[in-house]
Amino acid sequence: MSVRPFRIDVPQETLDDLVRRLDQTRWPDEIEGAGWDYGSSVGYLRQLCEYWRTNYDWREHERALNRLPQFKTRIDGLDIHFVHAEGRGPRPLPLVLTHGWPSSFYEMHKVIGPLTDPAAHGGDPGDAFHLVVPSLPGYGFSDPPRTRGLNTTRIGELWVELMQRLGYPRFGAQGGDWGAAVTTARGVRHAERMIGVHFNMFSPPIDEASLTPEQLEWWRGVQAYRAQEWGYVHLQSTKPQTPAFGLNDSPAGLAAWIVEKWRRWSDCDGDVERAYTKDELLTNLTLYWVTQTIGSSMRLYYESFSRAIAPSSAPRISVPMGAAVFKEANRPPRELAEPYYDIRRWTLMERGGHFPALENPEGLVEEIRAFFRPLRAGEG
To answer: Could you report the per-residue pLDDT of 322-370, keeping only the tens digit for each?
Structure first.
């Protein structure tokens, strides 16, 4: 199947409609002094949406994104959008980076240059990668699935076919959130194709009965966090289509749903703009808006949370694994991951949260380089 060049060109009427909808937002009331306690802050969302309406320039960011080499190819009836940036170095290593929710391929734009052309960014050209950054099905410019069952395991199969189509029979993989689940699926089902897998966020199976007192204390903290913060998971894994009606119709509603997660999951002490600029937040939001993919992105929860795997039956991944463990609320102790992974590198990161490619790109780049460096010798 063909691989076709792709450029982003959002119709002007779509952008004009976005401005009109922002201008006509019906704002909800809120409890006095509530801040973010009940969910998204009305005061902050008003400021952000006013900037979106009057100051944000999508065309500027569209031009920047179009400087990335983007393509589409059809796999299993779906047009898959991806960046394919070839490395500059003596032996670039093929690597696929997979984003999560509520993110997009845009999250990776700061790491593409340093990973593909290390010498131009003060690094060793021997650390170069051929980089492939796909948009998950139903995210951004990839087609949304029209039939049931496209979960992270099946997406892993799509990515194997994508890499084969690009001429990479063996490759490395990196991801967090859904990207970690897709990467894990490839490590389980296609170990012979994988050079190594690297995670910036993942959740190994937990057998509560086997935990030490210290581990049990950690696990109870994770459960308390999930009880408070995982309402969206329950909704999106059971009835994702219902909120899609409102979020696909109201840009302010979309912003409230997504920005609350970016604030809560980032290493920002409650001030989301300590981690990201307004333009960075809004470029991600605008990608969801102009592609109308918030509904299809949430359906991945329904497809992927429908089957739980008991710790006793979870497979061990024989592929070399590395982890850059950022400041996630549920980051696991290393000893709980060891039964399931061949851990070669494990780094507790001092800065950054759920979206490190935007929040701490330098740290993530160095960890990816360091993990794959000793694995390159066997690929010559």
So the answer is: 999 999 878 899 999 999 999 999 999 999 999 999 999 999 999 999 9
Exposure letters 190-221 (e unless 16+ CB within 10 A, then b): beebbbbbbbbbbbbbbeeeebeeebeebbee
Cα separation, 283 vs 180, in Å, equals 23
Short-list 261, 200, 266, 204, CA closest to 232: 261
- CB 95 within 8 Å of CB 130: yes
Mean pLDDT over the full length of the chain: 95
Give the span between the Cα atoms of 82 and 134, in whole angstroms: 4
Please state, in angstroms and rounded to a whole number, the distance separating the CA atoms of residues 16 and 24. Answer: 13
Q: Which amino acid is at 307?
A: R
In DSSP notation, 64-107 reads HHTTS-EEEEEETTEEEEEEEE---SSSPEEEEEE--TT--GGG
Burial environment of residue 175 by CB neighbours within 10 A (0 to 12, 13 to 18, 19 or more): buried
Q: Do residues 78 and 142 make contact, with C-beta atoms less than 8 angstroms apart? A: yes
Q: How far apart are CA 270 and CA 364, in angstroms?
A: 22
Instruction: Report d(CA 7, CA 69) in Å as an integer.
Output: 9
**Catalytically annotated residues:** 177, 301, 354
Single-letter amino acid, residue 166: L
CA 209 centroid distance within chain: 32
Look at 89-93, 245-249, 305-309, 366-370 and tell me which has the smallest mean pLDDT. 305-309
Q: 239-266 pLDDT, tens per residue?
A: 999 999 999 999 999 999 999 999 999 9
- Of 370, 371, 350, the C-alpha closest to 360 is 350
Q: How far, in Å, CA of 27 to CA of 38, rounded?
A: 15
- Cα–Cα distance for residue pair 284/286, rounded to 1 Å: 6
Token output for 313: 């039956």
**pLDDT tens digits for range 155-201:** 999 999 999 999 999 999 999 999 989 988 887 888 899 999 999 99
